Amino acid sequence: MKLLFILLTCFFMKASFSQEATTTIYLIRHAEKADTTADTNLSEAGKERAVRWMEYLVANRIDAIYTSPYNRTRQTVKPLADGLKIKVKEYDPKVMNLFTLAEKHHNQTIVIVGHSNTIPGHINKLLGENIYPDIDEETFGNLYVITISGGKISHELIEM
């Protein structure tokens, strides 16, 4: 009986240690903007999309939210951050590094809100390939999902 207990303990310990940690990164472009000024707010359509992003993402176990330091990105993520009661962290879109964020948030899920000309480039750098082009100026519904598990990176583009 003692031997059986030891064998079962070893089996369950091995099973729990062999489960691979998964880090998930959701990247979205800010929602529709009111005008073309440098630090504009969201339009009414953008505010509606921000709520839709919240409704879609709130069901996930979000551990951290990052946004560039612009009104439109902060406003895009505000409904989600408020709903989850998570403090939003700012990043510099010119120097953001997905490798660093993935390491910092190992085995967690994070959301990053950025821009049409930065999000794809950051993803391509992480993947080591030029897969995603800049986002068209009229496209606001792309959700990029990066999953890191067992040393492998998978990626998906969901158009919403």
Would you mind describing this structure in some detail?
There is one protein chain. The chain is an alpha/beta fold and 160 residues long. It has a single domain (21-159), classed as Phosphoglycerate mutase-like (Rossmann fold), CATH 3.40.50. Helices cover 38% and strands 23% of the residues. It is built from five helices and six strands; from the N terminus they run H-E-H-E-H-E-H-E-H-E-E. The chain has a six-stranded mixed sheet, sandwiched between helices. Mean pLDDT is 90; it is low at 1-18.
Q: Count of DSSP helices? A: 5
Please name the CATH topology. Rossmann fold
The H-level CATH homologous superfamily, spelled out, is Phosphoglycerate mutase-like
Low-confidence stretches: 1-18
Q: Major beta sheet, specifics? A: 6 strands, mixed
Q: Average pLDDT across residues?
A: 90
CATH-scheme architecture: 3-Layer(aba) Sandwich
Q: From the alpha carbons, calculate the radius of gyration and give it in angstroms.
A: 19 Å
What string, H for helix and E for strand, traces the elements in order? HEHEHEHEHEE
Instruction: Note the gap between the termini.
Output: 56 Å
Strand residue percentage: 15-25%
Name of the top-level CATH class: Alpha Beta
> Helical percent range?
25-40%
Number of strands: 6
Offer a few descriptive terms:
single chain; 160 residues; Rossmann fold; 23% strand; disordered N terminus
Briefly summarize what is shown.
The protein has helices spanning 2-18, 44-57, 71-84, 98-104, 119-127, and strands at residues 22-29, 64-67, 88-90, 109-114, 142-149, 152-159.
